[in-house]
Each structure stands twice: as C-alpha cells, then as structure tokens.
Design goal:
single chain; about 150 residues; alpha+beta; Aminopeptidase; 5 helices; globular
Length: about 150
C-alpha cells in the first residue's frame, strides 16, 4: 500500500473541483459553495498560493484532497495553519489516507513554526466519526464557527 501526497497545480483543477464538489455535497453546503468552483476561480488560488492544495494518491490513484491556508491572529500567538477542506473518497476511507494528509500538514506546521493548526468540523451528529477522527489526531474542540455573508 503506497500513499503519496503532492501539491496540486493548475493542471489538477478538474480533480480538485470534483473532490471539493463531492465534499460540499456530502456536508450539505450551500449551493453557492459549489457554484464558485471552476477552473478560472481556482486559478487565483494557484497563482497566489495563500491557500495550498494537496492531493493524496493511493497506488497512483487520486483519492483525497486537503487545503491549507496560513493565517495569523493574536490569540494564536502569531501565524497558524487552517485546514479549510479535507476529503477522501468514501471507498478509500479507513485506510490511513486522512491520517497521512493530517501528518503531512502537521509537518508543514512544524517547518513554519506555527503555534497551532485549526480545522472546522461539521457539528451535525451524523459527522461524529469525522469529529472523533480529528480528536484522535490531537485536535481539541474550541467552539463553533459562525459566518456572515457580505
């Protein structure tokens, strides 16, 4: 079993879009989250690199995605990482791909001297397994996330 992780590029846009759409549909995200997803929209992400996108491969098959944004805040003591999206194809779950993606991001955090890495997990009880996955990986619950549409 070989799991590899590589940084996505503009050429990977189609698979990035596919994985993010599947994630948003699974989470029940608003229609607008999916409407934004096209190659032109993603080109800004690839150009600025504020948010980095990584793909997971299992035996050369694309099976997962994780996105990571560097941010900073006083309450975190400076710079920190924010996992915006993490998705593994359902048929490839429970074989350590999500674990490998998190370990990869934790290593980036160490290299960048971040104080912490944040992730927003769904609060719906049907996603209890997801929350427990993060807890098993050392994440602690710090409260709900709210949003305001501008």
């Amino acid at each position: 079993m070989e799991i590899k992780i590589k940084k996505a590029t503009q050429e990977d846009s189609k698979i990035v879009i596919r994985f993010l759409k599947e994630l948003y549909l699974e989470l029940g995200e608003e229609k607008e989250s999916i409407e934004y997803l096209d190659e032109e929209f993603l080109s800004d992400f690839f150009a600025t690199e504020t948010t980095k996108i990584f793909l997971a491969f299992f035996n050369e098959i694309q099976v997962g995605i994780i996105t990571l944004t560097e941010s900073q805040a006083i309450y975190t003591g400076g710079k920190f990482g924010l996992i915006d999206e993490l998705f593994v194809l359902p048929e490839f779950r429970s074989i350590q791909i999500g674990q490998k993606l998190l370990d990869f991001i934790k290593e980036i955090g160490k290299q960048n001297n971040w104080k912490r890495i944040d992730v927003t997990a769904p609060s719906d009880s049907k996603f209890e397994r997801t929350v427990n996955f993060y807890k098993r990986n050392g994440f602690v619950f710090t409260g709900p996330k709210l949003k305001f549409k501008v």
